[in-house]
Amino acid sequence: MDLALFKGVVDQIFDQGWSLLGIHFGLFGDGLVDPHVVERARYARERLPEIMLDVNTNGAAFDRKRHGSLDRDLTLLTLHCESIRPDTYDQIMTPLRAKNVFPKYEPILDSFPGKVRVSVPVSRMNRDDIEETRDWFLERGAKEVVFDPLASRCTDDQSLFRRIAFTPVEIRCNPDILDDVIIDCDGLVLSCCQDFERREPIGNVAADGLLSALQDTRRAVFHGRLAAGSHGEIETCRRCAADVRTPNFPFDLATPGELKAGSHPPPPVSSTTISQ
């Protein structure tokens, strides 16, 4: 996002006196690839000193000289890692390679002490690795390791997702999902953090400013469609599916070996309502 546009968004939040839970950099891409991420975090921290600031990254772009100063402003650095086993990582995270990314992990943990949150989406491909991955990061000072259900990202071709997910269900969000404001790098406001293909724009801060974008009629229409339960008529929503958190997720999920043995056959896809 253009730096002036970003500062304008932050200024409008400040001028309105709004209380935000947080700002997350790098939702649809890697936050550390952004050449202005350090300046963005500094400006947001100066204008909104109490806000939670988080950068999402897979770690590949980390450079201590470029990014080390982020520690003074960030609340969290969320590191996406599917597995600490190189063969599993290379298979899931292609085109990234463990030999290039894994050497970045300890410098990241050293540069952001007590601030690294490791996100591990759990699938049939890495279920056997999750304890090892968790222990590796916690032993080296990660703040926490969080296991996340696998999501379809609202894609057209869900064949891979269906093969590696456990018991995916259709996700039917409530209207309060719009409490999260998703702004892409060009200022387009999107309906959902899973709309990677940008199918449902509901505003544009570059064209209209933040206040007008939040009052865009498309936003109100989208809210009404969710409230009416018309998810099947919405391009993104009808493609949205995910595993859901079980009582002891993910440790009560069957391992791939158990699934192959037939002891835990996956149930058919069903539907649920989740407020995110």
Strand and helix layout:
Blueprint: H1 3-16, E1 22-25, H2 37-47, E2 52-57, H3 64-67, E3 76-80, H4 86-93, H5 98-111, E4 116-122, H6 130-139, E5 144-149, H7 159-164, E6 169-173, E7 182-183, E8 188-190, E9 201-204, H8 205-208, H9 210-214, H10 217-227, E10 241-242, H11 256-261, E11 270-274
Parallel strand pairs: 1-2, 2-3, 3-4, 4-5, 6-11
Antiparallel strand pairs: 6-10, 7-8, 8-9
Helix pairs in contact: 1-2
Mean pLDDT: 90
Distance between the termini: 25 Å
CATH architecture of the largest domain, by name, is: Alpha-Beta Barrel
Provide the helix percentage.
25-40%
User: What is the CATH topology descriptor of the largest domain?
Assistant: TIM Barrel
In total, how many domains does the architecture comprise?
A: 2
Strand content: 15-25%
